[in-house]
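queue> pop job 88
queue> type: inverse folding (structure -> sequence)
queue> payload:
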């Protein structure tokens, strides 16, 4: 359910392509957020008490409801973000896949299991289980307004928590609809609520003492503010932030496939993708052929709001200035625009821009651009490509195209990122079983997969003594002889040298 508000103020969500008002939503103030958290606390206890099987059924029904409303959701995402309807459908399908996986795997990953106690504690029965935290606050971005928050919402709910979701002010309707669909299958308690508003609403959620964890997705700058607010109550946080991801193209790569994937990675969703390709490093001998394929394809792309458009407008008006600055900065420093140029920035659209000869220290290479622009660099070999890829404070994801499996795996392992996709773009995002998250300025903690489920729990260790051992070492009745015997045993077990 979305929260009924007593607040007097409202804000409008706008269609970024047309400027038309999509809907008006309440600005939930600190009091309204507090009330939502209080309701969630009670709902969390009820949800937790339902048990694994009942929660699984409810979440699978939530999935069914979302699937039946897929087109309605996609149209709303299209209107609020401006992205093509098909991209919005694809995003919703990915969200559905994650919801399905989280619902079906929660008990297996988190439920009680026996652990071997070891020789010293052989008389103990040991149980490990992962318990829900209580109330999880989810703060989401606008660029993938259902896929991204669902990576936290589905996993937090499946782990037995209640969720209070604050969507971006640019995509509040998606959050409201999501909570409505959930309430239709779980009408008893407000287990998933959406609070709408601006940054301050997110701030109120992060600083509320009743929140047991914050799952934040957004910019690194805001993540730091959210962490500071959370520090007040020692509230833990998982932070999914921005990136400056690279695509590496090896000399023996399938260049058609590489150009196709890199272009999609760079330009789809108008380049507003946290794991989007922002830099391409191509090994010398493949550079000319690759660039020619990439530019041929890029020239065909047209932004717009119609059904045939390749991608939509820039969703957040403030981003236009950043994109323009990065292009101008690169050109001022001697770069060449092989597709588009400074004139490609035409509010609210940015036409495709492909830049070459961009200095490594320019903002187009160092900062997250979040637009349909790409810098292409010639490197002498994979080592130089990797070195340049890793020369960023971000570390979210990356792509490698290579004809050599072993070489690609080696580079993937050494890439400083949370995820790497070989010979495809961002395949890991579609695999619900794999964890998603970054390193460095791209954040910490993981959503998706088993790690994503555990992220919203606390491990609980329980031991039960099955029988008393003859030697009780943790008793004041312990004798010297018993201690000597145990020391002898430890020596036998652990003192030896191991040979290779
Ligand atoms: P922002 O950081 O601007 O906002 C993210 C969320 O935080 C929004 O809901 C926003 O609300 C809220 N917020 C703003 N100020 C505060 C505050 N002081 N306290 C609490 N919450 C606050 O990011 P964007 O929405 O612009 O998203 C784009 C960024 O997200 C990019 O950097 C992108 O790379 C990253 N991203 C990362 C992903 C990942 O998984 N790693 C996935 C998708 C995006 P409001 O909108 O109302 O201001």
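queue> result:
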């Amino acid at each position: 359910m979305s929260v009924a508000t007593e607040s007097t103020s409202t804000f409008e969500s706008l269609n970024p392509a047309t400027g038309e008002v999509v809907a008006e939503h309440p600005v939930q103030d600190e009091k309204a957020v507090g009330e939502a958290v209080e309701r969630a606390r009670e709902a969390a206890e009820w949800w937790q008490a339902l048990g694994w099987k009942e929660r699984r059924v409810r979440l699978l029904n939530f999935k069914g409801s979302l699937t039946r409303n897929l087109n309605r959701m996609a149209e709303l995402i299209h209107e609020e973000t401006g992205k093509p309807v098909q991209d919005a459908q694809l995003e919703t399908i990915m969200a559905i896949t994650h919801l399905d996986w989280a619902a079906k795997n929660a008990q297996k990953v988190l439920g009680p299991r026996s652990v071997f106690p070891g020789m010293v504690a052989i008389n103990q029965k040991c149980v490990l289980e992962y318990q829900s935290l209580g109330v999880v606050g989810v703060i989401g971005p606008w660029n993938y307004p259902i896929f991204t928050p669902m990576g936290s919402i589905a996993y937090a709910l499946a782990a037995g928590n209640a969720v209070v979701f604050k969507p971006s002010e640019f995509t509040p309707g998606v959050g409201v609809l999501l909570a409505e669909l959930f309430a239709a299958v779980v009408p008893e308690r407000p287990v998933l609520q959406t609070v709408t508003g601006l940054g301050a609403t997110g701030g109120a959620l992060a600083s509320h003492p009743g929140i047991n964890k914050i799952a934040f997705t957004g910019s690194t700058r805001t993540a730091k503010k959210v962490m500071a607010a959370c520090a007040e109550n020692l509230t833990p946080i998982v932070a999914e932030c921005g990136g400056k991801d690279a695509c590496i193209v090896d000399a023996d790569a399938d260049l058609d496939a590489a150009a196709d994937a890199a272009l999609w990675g760079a330009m789809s969703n108008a380049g507003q993708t946290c794991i989007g390709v922002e830099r391409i490093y191509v090994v010398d001998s493949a550079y000319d052929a690759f660039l020619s394929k990439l530019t041929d394809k890029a020239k065909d792309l047209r932004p717009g709001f119609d059904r045939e458009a390749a991608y939509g407008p820039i969703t957040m008006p403030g981003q236009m200035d950043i994109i323009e600055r990065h292009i101008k900065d690169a050109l001022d420093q001697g770069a060449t625009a092989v597709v588009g140029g400074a004139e490609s920035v035409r509010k609210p659209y940015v036409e495709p821009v492909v830049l070459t000869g961009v200095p490594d220290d320019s903002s187009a290479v160092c900062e997250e651009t979040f637009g349909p622009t790409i810098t292409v660099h010639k490197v002498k070999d994979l080592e130089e490509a990797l070195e340049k890829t890793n020369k960023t404070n971000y570390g979210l994801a990356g792509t490698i195209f290579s004809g050599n499996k072993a070489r690609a795996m080696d580079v993937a392992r050494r890439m400083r990122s949370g995820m790497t996709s070989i010979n495809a773009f961002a395949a890991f995002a579609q695999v619900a079983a794999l964890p998603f998250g970054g390193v460095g300025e791209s954040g910490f903690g993981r959503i998706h997969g088993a790690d994503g489920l555990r992220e919203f729990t606390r491990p609980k260790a329980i031991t039960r003594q099955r029988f008393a051992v003859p030697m009780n070492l943790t008793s004041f009745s312990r004798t010297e002889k018993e201690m000597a015997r145990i020391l002898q045993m430890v020596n036998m077990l652990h003192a030896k040298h191991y040979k290779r």
